Each structure stands twice: as C-alpha cells, then as structure tokens.
Amino acid sequence: TVVLLRGLVDNGLLNTSHGQVAVGWLIFEDLATVAILVLLPVLFGESVANPWLDAGWTIAKTVAFIAIMLFIGKKVMPWVLVRTAYTRSRELFILAVITLALGTAMGATYFFDVSLALGAFLAGVVIGESDVSHQVGAEVLPFREIFAAIFFVSVGMLVNPVALVANAG
C-alpha cells in the first residue's frame, strides 16, 4: 500500500479514476489482511478450546471496538482535536494527534485484544473525518515520511544476502 500510494502521488495519478480504484483495492486488501490476522491465530493456534467459539468471541470483540470507535470515538476525538487546535499551539496539536492515535491503538490491543494496526487504522479513519483533518495531514506529514523510511529500512534489514546466494538456484 505504501509503495503504490507513493508511486501514485509521485506520478500525479492519485486523483485519477484509476488511482482511486487502486487505492480502493489496497484498502480492501488491507482490511482483509487485518481480518485474516485477527482470525488466523484463533482458528489455527494451540488452543484446546473450541476454535469456532474463540473466533466468534474475537469477532464480537472486534465489532464492539469498531462500533465504539465509529460512534463514541467519532464524537470525542474530533472534539478533543478542535479544542486543542483552538490553543494555537502546533506542538500541543501534534502531541494530541499522536496521543489519540497511539492511545487508541494501545487501548484496542489492551481492552479488545485486536491488533495495534486495526486500532491505529480506525483512529486514522476517525481523525480523518474531523473538521481539522487538513491540519492533521499537514502537521503529521513529516512523521509519515519518517515512518515510511523506517518501514523500508526494516524490510531491507530482514533480507539475508547469504540465504539469497545459497538458495539462488
């Protein structure tokens, strides 16, 4: 997703119809991946209990988290961000955005046993729907660039050149 989005933006294709379709597919694939990652450990883990009951419980907790985020979070998070924006403190605003996003991700994991990625994704959805979403995008842009670089560096660090040479055939 990050690679294709970056390519679309760099080539000015993000706002074309083809670019929008590509982004839609990427988001669908990301959501399907989250669902798979939520259910895979439950269905194929080492649990001695009924895996289907565990899967149902996991789905129920995930749906509860999503409902809370879309109904309560949609009211609370934008309210906090708007009040923080009124302070006219750029540092406080950035801190509020990061705290809300990371706090939601951590809370999702701690209280609902859902992945950090799903919590962060839903925090981004809710923040993106707020009245200050343009300011959030402008203020957090440098962080996005840093995290994208860290992502690619970490993926590159996973490559083992010795294993590649040994298995070249």
Description:
With 169 residues, the chain is mainly α. Helix content is 83%, strand content 0%. It has seven helices and no strands. It has helices at 2-10, 17-44, 51-85, 90-112, 116-128, 133-158, 161-166.
Elements, N to C (H/E): HHHHHHH
Shape: globular
Question: Residue ranges: pLDDT <50 for 5 or more in a row?
Answer: none
Which structural class should the secondary elements be placed in?
mainly alpha
Largest sheet: none
How far the N terminus sits from the C terminus, by CA atoms, comes to 30 Å
Rg result: 19 Å
Helix content: over 70%
For the secondary structure, the number of strands is 0
Task: Give a short synopsis of this structure.
This protein is 83% helix and 0% strand.
Tags for this model:
169 residues, 7 helices
Topology diagram in text:
Blueprint: H1 2-10, H2 17-44, H3 51-85, H4 90-112, H5 116-128, H6 133-158, H7 161-166
